[in-house]
Amino acid sequence: MPKPKKPTTVVVTGDFTANWYLAKVRQSDSVVVGGRADKVTRACWQRGSSALLADIIETIAAELQQGGHAPFSILQTAAPRGQLEASTSGARFDQSYTIWSLFKYGEKPPLDKEKAAWRIKEFLGLDRVANTGPEWQKVIDDTADANLVILDDGDQGFRDRPELWPLAIKTGATNRPWILLRISGTVAQGPLWDHLHGEFADRLIVVTSADDLRLTEVQISRELSWERTSQDLFWELVHNPRINALSSCAHVIVLFGEAGAVLLSREKNSSTCLLYFDPKVIEGMWEQNYPGGMIGYTTCLTAGISRQLMMSPASPDIGQGVQSGLTALRALHMEGYGERGASTSEVQLRFPIGLIASTLAKGEKPFAVAEVQDPLRFIKQPENGSEKPLTEGVWTILQDRYKENLERVAEQIVLEGPEVSLPDVPLGQFGNLLTVDRDEIESFRCLRSLVSEYHRLGQQKRPLSIAVFGSPGSGKSFGIIEVTNSVLPGQVEIRAFNLSQFNSTEDLLAAFHQVRDIALGGKIPLVFWDEFDTTFEEMPLGWLRHFLVPMQDGRFQEGQINHPLGRCIFVFAGGTCGSMASFGGGFNQDAFRAAKGPDFVSRLKGYVNILGPNPVDCGEDKPTHDPYYLIRRAILLRQIMKRNAPQLFERSNGKDQLNIDRGVLRALLHTREYRHGVRSIESIIAMSQLAGKSVFARSSLPAESQLDLHVDGLDFLALVRQIELDGAVLENLAEAAHEIYRKGVTGRHQKTDTAVLAYADLPEESKEQNRRNIRDIPLKLARAGYAMIPARSNERPFNFPGVALEMLSQAEHERWMRAKLADGWIHAAESSREKKENRGLLPWDQLPEDEKEKERDMVRGIPVILARAGYAIVKSHG
User: Fold this and answer.
1) Which of 98, 255, 367, 739 could form a disulfide with 209 if both were Cys (CB 3.0 to 4.6 A apart)?
2) DSSP codes joined into one string, 778-813
3) How far apart are CA 354 and CA 348, in angstroms?
4) pLDDT at site 392
């Protein structure tokens, strides 16, 4: 007979609270007061804190044993289990009180009592009592040989009483179990923490919440972006002396409500920080769709980690524990306490232990995961010289996830939607506005918070003043309107005034009167002051001085009378400046001060920079490096198509698939520039013959002369007609392109890393570079007025490229440079493949002549390259 497996011993102890749940119910037929049915309150109680955690662990242990795991022995205190009286007199332990009510289960009203969930309406507080003795608070049958110790430290006294601590963590114990510490209140302080950190740091796992950390002297942003918040937390955990002892623990898990969590893990002398997040929401947003509060979030997360430690103590999957814990706490919030649909007269509010245990057992992974970039990586130079160079600028999950093949990602976004194409990238959704750019997301969320707080404070003397910048047609007004309406649906009235069209201050006073009338009518005016930075009375920024008093005092003067504006939102939309940083940049300090620029800026409460569908100009001192404009453009294209041509979408497999010719899609995505930003995209869609059509075909496009109003018509149609080369033909032509490059370099007696290698021996990156060159040939030809056709004779090609040589060479250089920059290469005086440095990463007019000649060689060689595939070049006729 096989020897029975020794039970795994789990000790669960810590602070204890008796949780009283007060449910307001209507007893319409049995309780009559003064001749009428009246409300009654039903009181339920449940073991809380460490006792509730012990009850969940017992259920998990039973489920694991049924699945074939070794038996478990769960040790806990003698915390009460039987009936309690709802009285504080003579109480031996802390008691909490909450009022519960029915809330809608799903995201849409009205309340359906058959589907409603019981959640907290009001937290009444905690009744603290002095401990009368340790007898019931000690672990029953305690042992120093425990395999896992789970401690609940709610800052209610347990941390300060060593006599209550389990034997397995006492000084002198030879056993080194895993210790899972759930801590709330003041974090990383007290005798218990000092002891655990000093004796068991390498076996210590801490679970806490961001809100608890914020009660300490830490700075963690709230509701801006996942990147900002997670990097803030990473820095605080590692460098803030008030809490950085946490970073020496084996693992630290910090919960951000129902939206996500951060896991900091210690390995030898380094730390790895992982973010688990819901891309569609940020901290505090998910629960807005499911009103009401809840008790037990960190309990669920702690239970998820506990289950992994119980299943595999030698190598626990902490990441899976985080995923399962987050899934369980969402299930807890949605289902609430008690049984949904049960009669309110029979309500029994209880933490749903069975539901949580079964949810944890499913092992789901619904949350996206990203490794958080160390905010000091640029300062702490890479120790390993072969480490991949870092991308300058702020860290974004989008750039981490999608460094290459942005063209394919952009196409998928237009065809299937960003939710499908970017499943693990944070999305900023504000009404009908969607953005994936971190800066825009943070700016819009700041704006959302400003508007929400302004509204919450009630009547205000002065306007809420914000500025918005961006190129013409970038969507400045649309973005602000969508964000404001998402906070105040149906409560705002929009007015727009273009200051460049005002002839005098009398026009401004008339506009102020309109704003005042709207406020008196009960609405909140959302007022756009377009081109506020224009010249007035021959003075640059001449309008600024006329807004200073209304912005500061909420009043405007007409003659001898001061008129209050009332509550309103002023939006100053720039017409000459593309960003807040460039506002006033054309002035010296004295001139800007004379124009009242600093006074104006001091009255602003926030600003937003709108990027729009075109690449951002990075300045004259460095090449334009904004490859992610393709992603922005793709999102805008899909949104505009949805609004203006919904008949082009077909529902399939739960997705709205856009029916569009691939050439048209390519042109819409890759045309060089939309002359008037978003307005140009909307105009091209409106000009196309799409009425009654279910597919956006090439024949639906307007003529080249009409396209020229909004794009470079020739460039756009060249993209539409571009031939797609792939497969064996592509590989054959890529090899030919490399041979031309080798001959040109050898002829000029130059030596490069790739010139000495045959195509077959090239690294994959260099092969792909040649393939990209070939894929771009049809586009280059079309731009110069040529086309490639199957060759029908042995006639030699005419004089190609002729006068187009320089233009095509520059276009090829710009294409090559965009690809290099997107792959993380940088400019340097000497090229180095190992360091990803290349001397040719310069604008065409700054490029050395020998580098220009390489590009000219490639253009001159196009007829030879195409001949290998049986193609010739002819003049295009349309």
Assistant:
1) 255
2) HHHHHHTTEEEEE--S-PPP-S-SGGGHHHHHHHHH
3) 15
4) 56
